[in-house]
Design a protein that fits this description.
Two copies of one chain form a homodimer. The first copy, chain A, is of the alpha/beta class. In chain A, 33% of the residues lie in helices and 22% in strands. In chain A, the strands form three sheets. Chain A has a seven-stranded mixed sheet, with helices on both faces. A six-stranded mixed sheet of chain A has the order 4-3-9-7-5-6, with helices on both faces. Chain A is globular. The relative contact order of chain A is 0.19. The interface between A and B is large, with 64 and 64 residues.
Chain lengths: 338, 338
């Protein structure tokens, strides 16, 4: 068994990489929510100055990554590997966003778990001795998602209360081998879990068992209790999914509250913003991490966070063929100390 | 600069992982081509026993991975990380194919470069000390691609002579930290290159500059000449793209022939099989690698191969929005000796 492997699904990094820079850009609705002050830039233009929503999403990716690079004190040409992906078919949000940036790219697809997946791989590339500086980026966009996955936006389709609202946002992180932190210390990589749910308007319920399995494995592998973290945050389970995760742990005699939260519940006010079960999309956990969470860690509000991105790996074709929704969750420990 | 980094875009693995198992499964047309004897299984049923082409593609992935695991002498539960992705929207070929296999999954998207990307990351995970056993898998399917990217298959649309034929095939590789080889020794990770070509029926031309850039960088970084390899093989440039790559090198005064070939030209007979410019799709380079190439290395026909997977990162949406085709190429050195 390799030295860094701990337990069944986790690794402890030998030289935890430092988060040297992070930035996030969001749309107008996100900029009206409860964590609006944590975003680097809020755009009132859903096309971000471009002539289509998709090109706007790519522009958002480009700007988030440039901002994060600027804050890291590194030059663009120093980034040795970029991990990026998004929800658009063939991940065009990322590809077109980083097209002119001249950085070696590993394209990834983890649905809404993409930031956690990219962060895992970007950290392992440094800890494995392959690079000194790496980056992870992802995005989602309400209008590009809505028309790709559901209905034309103009149609104004009704949504059930279990549905989540795709966040318009992009988050980017720059990691370096040395630095003052926060550090990526441990990683638990998820397996596909499919509880058999077929309702694409209830992805929280579909993803909850994957989140439970990865969190449970993380605690077991590393002999940790939830209270060892100042905050445990799931990707975007929303109201339905996060209550299922809390229930599952309660059955095991484990109480995740009060230091548990979900990015899908943090980014919007469900009372004031009519988002039904909460936020979702790759940009949801990415922009909450790259704004509210990492800012909070730097301010000393939390010293140790478990960031558990969740993804529902369905497509319109799989739903039309009456398939259930396979889901995944990747967990990353972020700590102010090595 | 990290120790394993060589030149600008390459790494030399400290303890090159061994390819412990490899397998490929293809469709009927591939099974009638010039390298038909190298495939592990040829199916005359394009649905692979399932009730849709997409479910058939997932079944192909599952079987290729199971076969490769079987040949590796490892158990399924010993695989610590799987890297997989495909051409279908949201990579459902992979996700549904490996859904029940209980292996930690990093979903990747590199279009037709996916096998080279997965092989790169699977090797780095072992060399970085995170795992002893990893895997990479990918697939493509003529019918699922055709109806997703182009027209209903039944429509029988005409194709220009620059178009390539999507391979129905899946390839899987199992890597281990120790073993008799062949070994993954060096990796050059590609950047996006976009020559501005907008014709989705001429992806060879769109991808050729990316292949040229990665190969050129590989030779420069590692101070190698093309003749240092017994075979240099690009992913699936087909007739148009591979002749462009040869031309580009000729302008630099470098002759890649006679030890250059392209998976898109190897898998079909252009004379007898009416595939126009050649084969393409993630399953093209994957099944050529996992059959013909690795079998040939084991038989001693070649001792050192440079496998350069190429991908065109377009989507139907990006084409409809009149965007050009960003492309990428990842190169992996495979050698019978460490």
């Amino acid at each position: 068994m390799s030295l860094k492997h701990v337990g069944k699904q986790s690794v402890a990094l030998a030289n935890p990489p430092s988060i040297a820079g992070h930035a996030c850009i969001v749309g107008e609705k996100e900029g009206q929510g409860p964590i609006k002050d944590s975003f680097d830039y809020v755009s009132s233009d859903m096309r971000f100055g471009q002539n289509s929503w998709e090109k706007g999403e790519s522009e958002m990716v480009r700007r988030a990554l440039e901002l994060a690079i600027g804050k890291s004190g590194k030059q663009q040409e120093e980034i040795e590997y970029l991990f990026g992906g998004d929800l658009l078919n063939q991940c065009i949000g990322t590809t077109f966003g980083v097209r002119d940036m001249n950085i070696p790219l590993f394209g990834i697809y983890g649905a809404c778990s993409t930031m956690a997946e990219g962060l895992s791989l970007a950290a392992m590339m440094i800890d494995g001795g392959f690079a000194d500086t790496t980056a992870a980026v992802t995005s989602s966009h309400f209008c590009t998602s809505e028309r790709q996955y559901r209905f034309p936006v103009e149609y104004g389709g009704q949504r059930p209360l279990t549905a989540q609202w795709t966040v318009t946002g992009s988050g980017a992180v720059i990691l370096t081998s040395e630095g003052p932190g926060p550090y990526i210390t441990h990683i638990t990589t998820g397996k596909i879990v499919d509880p058999g749910i077929k309702d694409a308007n209830n992805m929280g319920a579909a993803m909850a068992p994957a989140a439970y399995e990865t969190l449970r494995m993380h605690f077991a592998d590393l002999s940790l209790r939830p209270s060892d973290y100042d905050l445990i945050v799931t990707g975007d389970l929303g109201q339905v999914g996060s209550s299922i995760v809390l229930d599952f742990f309660k059955r095991d005699g484990i109480e995740l509250m009060p230091n548990y939260d979900d990015c899908g519940l943090m980014i919007f006010s469900r009372e004031k913003q009519d988002v039904h079960a909460g936020g979702s999309g790759c940009g949801c956990s990415a922009s909450v991490l790259c704004g509210y969470l990492l800012n909070g860690m730097r301010a000393g509000r939390w010293n140790k966070i478990l960031f558990a991105g969740t993804g529902a790996m369905l497509s319109t074709t799989s739903s039309q063929q009456k398939e259930s929704i396979p889901s995944i969750c990747h967990a990353v420990s972020i700590s102010n100390t090595r």
